[in-house]
Amino acid sequence: PRGSIANWVLGNHDNSRIASRLGVARADLYNIALQTLPGIAVTYYGEEIAMVDQWISWPDTIDPAACNTDEATYTLYSRDPVRTPFQWNNGTNAGFSNATKTWLPVADGYKELNVEQQLLAPRSHLKTFIQLTHYRKRRLLAEGDFELHVVDRELVLYRRKVARVGEAVIALNFGDQPVQGLPLRKVFSGVRRGKMEVVASSLQVPVTAGATIDPEQFALPANSGIVLQRIVGPNPIVA
Q1: What are the beta bridge partners of residue 149?
Q2: What are the angstrom distances between the C-alpha of 231 and each of 78, 91, 163?
Q3: Which positions ≥6 away from 215 have C-beta within 8 Å?
Q4: Partners of 168 in beta bridges
Q5: Element at 161 (helix H, strand E)
Q6: pLDDT tens column, 133-161
Q7: Which of 71, 143, 180, 215 has its CA 20 to 30 Å from the CA of residue 238?
């Protein structure tokens, strides 16, 4: 409603993690949407590195909703799989605690999926998330107008625009096939022909922040997103 502020939430302590629910390949896609839509972005811990649900055995289960059932059916009610310790590094208890035992077991795969590894990698879910959270503080996303179009059901395009600052265009491909060419000039008025700068992109996108592309000639991979900008004036941090 007019005058209201949207509150965007992908996951929480009661629901399956996004990377498990919708696929690891789509983790960046949804984080791009979360961080670029107008309003408040709420991130549940682990979404920034694409943590996944962890199976918890009956003896290790602590969620009252599950403990009040039985070993045959507890997994239908347990929320413990989304509440495992945050994965900081590949050390003891994933760097979360130096205790002998944590409240819930650390998830399998933490030695490869953790903050430390993603900071060391040339590209990672975490580095994309950091780019997005930094960019949302700038004027284009903090104050920009919002115009959204759905193209062929699977491609979503929206623009954030501030006069005398420029425009940011976000392209989200929710489909399982690449989209050949982003029809920005067909759906948005006043978009100039030519290249735009990449601000952030999903891991499967072959271009990274700082590169320039011609959107009309660019193929956006399946299950991926990209943030583009064209700046004509100062775009300072305002939030």
Answers
A1: 157
A2: 48, 43, 10
A3: 169, 171, 181, 182, 184, 196, 228
A4: 160, 229
A5: strand 155-162
A6: 999 999 999 999 999 999 988 999 999 99
A7: 215
Tell how far CA 175 is from the center of its chain. 16
pTM reported for the whole predicted model: 0.96
CATH topology for 144-231? Immunoglobulin-like (2.60.40)
CATH number of 7-126: 3.20.20.80
Q: State the sign of the Cα–Cα–Cα–Cα dihedral 60, 65, 68, 72.
A: negative
d(CA 141, CA 63): 39
Question: Which residue in the block uniquely carries the two structure tokens 């660019």?
Answer: 218
Residue type, 11: G
Dihedral over Cα of 117, 118, 120, 124: its sign: positive
d(CA 41, CA 39): 7
Q: Give the helix/strand (H/E) hosting 227.
A: strand 224-231
